């Protein structure tokens, strides 16, 4: 289920509301950034659900901070945040007073998972192809006395039959259960990980890699060097065979175990044909590696940190990438890094200089004077012309709008869904009045609108109000 870009601030099941069917949704989700409530309709899928998302309600501005079922069974929505005024909305299918929902009447409904008390039934369920069925069964097993099921985990020949690949899944889930609940079995579980056939099943890969992480975090002191080296050998043989999420876990485990040639293994994932997520994941691991660097590998990492400034992303991405680059520099050897960097041409400076060309000065606008001046022009304002003003005012030198511009400051795409006209003007004309904790060191230039007519400011405000959606 993908909601597209959003800033989630709350979620509510409509079964808590009176006349739940009237809402035509199973879940409601609040989105602060784009001023909307999202409706989710769920479809049973195995032991869980898939979801289809649509817009239930939206407003300008409607910066929702939370939602709840009120005592009368209606939907209550709270707005505010970032210095804006707070409002409380009551939404219901009817205007008259509703009857409260009795929580007791909801017990035993479809939301309550089936409980498996029988150990053999739980073991067989852990061999299910449905991950939610396996999860529920594993939790039941973890809450049971270890008794016979610990033997089933470590000696599959004594375990109830789970059929085919189900046997591998059940034992993988069982190893995770033992690692989480019985530290005395940590070493035995570790030695049983990644055995014969494990790399042929993605679900088993994920479970064994996750179990290895649990053992390493919780019980590292119990593992000998021989235990670590043995797992590294099995992991090395499997690395070419595993992909996607399992591959990421495997790389994390390799670095945690201080596996040999870690830079040589990770550097290829910085290549441009990989997704930006894959590149950043590899770089974030490289910053933890202080061994087996060579000058050639360090130069490749250095080149990536220079080119990564062009990766697409949100407003905070540039800062994260800089931090990653700084830590790779230290981990790989700051002296050699600086020497190699000194031989490269300097990077172009970010385009943050604001120049308004030959535009003549109009006036020093204040929030009050601008509010009054743009009012007569609002009926004929044009968002298309507003985008030209956004560009000419050099807003895109620091801000993004619908994936255009730079991410030094806040993204402006949904600003009209969060703030009203006064707050938008105040942010432009009095930028230091309220500063987000995400941008404490970013200074807005003064006088950005002093070379624009009231009609042009009205066009800009309309564009920001409508956003790119």
Total beta-strand segments? 9
Strands side by side in the biggest sheet = 1-2-3-4
* CATH architecture verdict of the largest domain: Alpha Horseshoe
N-to-C span = 20 Å
* Unreliably modeled segments: 106-116
Structural class by SSE content: alpha+beta
- The rounded Rg comes to 28 Å
| Sheet having the most strands | 4 strands, antiparallel
Number of helices: 18
What fraction strand?
A: 5-15%
When the domains are counted, the total is: 4
Helix % is: 40-55%
CATH fold descriptor of the largest domain: Leucine-rich Repeat Variant
The sequence of SSEs as H and E is EEEEEEEHHHHHHHHHHHHHHHEEHHH
The average pLDDT score comes to 84
Shape: flat
What's the CATH class of the largest domain, please?
Mainly Alpha
Your description of this structure?
With 469 residues, this protein is an alpha+beta fold. It folds into four domains: 8-106, no CATH class; 116-258, Leucine-rich Repeat Variant (Alpha Horseshoe), CATH 1.25.10; 260-348, no CATH class; 367-466, Orthogonal Bundle (Cytochrome Bc1 Complex, Chain D, domain 2). It is 41% helix and 12% strand. It has 18 helices and nine strands. It has helices spanning 119-125, 131-142, 147-154, 165-181, 186-192, 202-219, 225-238, 244-256, 262-266, 276-286, 295-307, 317-332, 334-342, 367-374, 383-392, 415-418, 421-429, 454-466, and strands at 8-13, 27-31, 36-45, 48-58, 64-69, 75-81, 84-91, 400-401, 404-405. Strands 1-2-3-4 form a four-stranded antiparallel sheet, with no helix packed on it. Strands 5-6-7 form a three-stranded antiparallel sheet, with no helix packed on it. Helix 8 runs parallel beside helix 10. The longest helix has 18 residues, at 202-219. The radius of gyration is 28 Å and the shape is flat. It starts with 7 loop residues before the first strand and ends with a helix. The model is unreliable at 106-116 (pLDDT under 50).
